[in-house]
Structure formats: structure tokens, C-alpha cells
Amino acid sequence: MAEELQPVRPVTLAEIKAARTRIAGTVLRTPLVPLDLGPAFPEVRLKLENLQPTNAYKIRGAANAVASLSDSERRQGVWTVSAGNAGQGVAHAARAAGIPCTVIAIETAPEAKIARMRALGADLVLVSYDEAWRALERRTHPGAAGRFIHPFDDHDFIAGHATMGLEILEDAPDVRIVATAIGGGGLIAGVGSAIKALRPDVQVWGVEPETAAPAHMSFQMGSPQVFPDWTASIVDGAGGKSMFPRMWERIRPVVDQSRTVTLDHVRQAIRVMAETARVVSEGAGALPLAAVLAGHLVEGPVVAVVSGGNIDLANLSDCLSDRTARPARNDGSR
After folding, report:
1. Which of 120, 230, 261, 269 lies at a C-alpha separation of 20 to 30 Å from 218?
2. pLDDT tens per residue across span 313-330
3. Hey, which residues does 125 pair with through a beta bridge?
């Protein structure tokens, strides 16, 4: 049976601060490190969420959501739907709480993510992307039991992600733009909620691959949209098939701009981070830097959220061996 949905409401600063206290023993306060791209580009600082225990930011929301469960909900266990990072986060938090976890996992997820979810003790049900997306929409799936933790449309999940925004403002008080990937929208809804509560002058930008950009289309049309030409790519952790109406309600008040980037710019960003800063990023984590390299973000300081580093070694090797993946001069023409 699907859960009864609560109305969408803003995530308050008090809830974000409470979440930070609640998850402090589980998540890392990740560093903010400079990335020198030279004088042709704005000042960039990388928020390294790839250094979290599950190598992705999702552990913030998962830890807060699991910690917020009632005793009766804990006894039922939890389940979620994931391409990998949310599943790892929920599995990690569930294992720490001593409760069972099931993940409806997309069968084409990188093997690194599949293996890690299993290692964390999750029971996996592998399904197609379309079947997983239907489970997200319906909040139910045959055989899935326990408390459903939605990987993005969950108030506690979003409040957990918002703790990242507090860290960014404390470590970079001069920041002008904070850029994150947009997948389901939970990351940018959380980070944007914290940023706008404390510094409404700081701009929040979302980035998607051009092969899967329902959020960008939604901003262009002014309403939640279905992306008709969705294509699977190296960016498996961002860019969905549609913008959920409830997530549109959440992100619209806290996001200033949205952009799309090519897969070539994503590969370029992965290579630049590895070569210049020795940072390993997955495709979704590279989207904000890809927007910088594409010339979309020209005023700094820019904080680019590296949302995760769970990339298969074969894909990473392909990106690193691409000798064309070097930053081009930003002359303002793109």
C-alpha cells in the first residue's frame, strides 16, 4: 500500500540545524577545495561529497530520514528505489540502525554501486529504469515491505541534504553561485533551502546533461515537464525522465538558474578534476564543473558540488584517456 503523502512545505532553518545535529556521527563535514582553471575561468571551489562514507551526498538525507523513523517504522524495516547512491545511503543508515533494507535498484546501474549496496547488507531487486521510475511515482512495488524512503521527494531526506548548504556558507562566505546536479531534485532543494534561508543574494544553479533535462525544460516552460528524448548515459545519477510536480514545488522557490551540458563537457570535467585536483567524480558529480567549462558560469567564486564519486573504473579510464578532455578557453562565446 502506498503511503499517504504529506503536503509539500518549505524546509525550515530550524529543521536543517536539527538534521545537522542528528547526522553528525554518521556523515563527514566534507572539505571545500580550490580548483585552479587559470585566468580564463572564474574562481571555483569543489565541495567534495565524493568523500562521504558511501562516496556520495545521499548519505546525508538517508541518515536523517532513518534517524527520524518511529520505533514502529524501524521494526518494519525500510526500502527505497535507486540507481545506486540513494540505495547506498539508506543501506548504510539502516545497517547502523540495525534494521532491514531493500533497494529496488536499476539494473543498468554501475557495478560499483550495485556491489556496494550488497556489501552494505541491502536486499536488491533489480529492475528496468522504467519500472524503477514507476515505483518512484507510485511509491509502491510488488514485494517491497516496510517504510518507503523516497530518494528525493522526502522532507527529512531533503533536510539532511540541506546541511551541506550550511557548510558551504560557513566555509565560503564570499560565494556568489552554488551549482549542483539535478536528478530528482532533492539535492538542489535541500542546498537551495539552506542557502536562501541565510543568504538570499547567493545564486543557486542546477545542471543536467542535455540527454536528460526535465528540470531545465520545466524552468523554460514554467511548469513540471516530461523529457521526451531521455537517453541513458555516463551521467546515471542525475537527469530523470520527468520533473515530479511535488519536486517542482520544492525547487522552484530556491533555484535561480538551470543549465544543460554536453556529455563531452561532463567527460572533460571528470578528467580535469582527476588531473588537476586528484578528485574522482562520477558523471553527476561532474555536472557543475562541466557548466563552468562550457562557459555557463562566468562569475565567481563558484562552489561546484561534487555530489558523488561512484564511477566504474572502465568509465573513469575512458574519461581519463580522452586526450581532448582539456579545458578550452572561456571567451564568452558559448
Report:
1. 269
2. 999 999 999 765 445 444
3. 104
Does position 1 have pLDDT exceeding 60, yes or no? no
Count other C-beta atoms under 10 Å from residue 34's C-beta: 11
pLDDT reported for residue 264? 96
Q: Which residues pair with 260 in a beta bridge?
A: 208
> Taking the model in full, what pTM does it have?
0.92
Nine cell digits for residue 132: 524503477
CATH of domain 59-148: 3.40.50.1100
The strand pairing partners of 304, in sequence order, are 46, 179
Per residue, the 3-state secondary structure of the chain, as one string, reads CCCCCCCCCCCCHHHHHHHHHHHCCCCCCCCEEEECCCCCCCCEEEEEHHHCCCCECHHHHHHHHHHCCCHHHHHHCEEEEECCHHHHHHHHHHHHHCCCEEEEEECCCCHHHHHHHHHCCCEEEEECHHHHHHHHHHCCCCCCCCEECCCCCCHHHHHHHHHHHHHHHHHCCCCCEEEEECCCCHHHHHHHHHHHHHCCCCEEEEEEECCCCHHHHHHHHCCCCECCCCCCCCCCCCCCCECCHHHHHHHCCCCCEEEEECHHHHHHHHHHHHHHHCCCCCHHHHHHHHHHHCCCCCCCCEEEEECECCCCHHHHHHHHHCCCCCCCCCCCCC
Return residue ranges of the chain for CATH 3.40.50.1100.
Answer: 13-56+155-321, 59-148
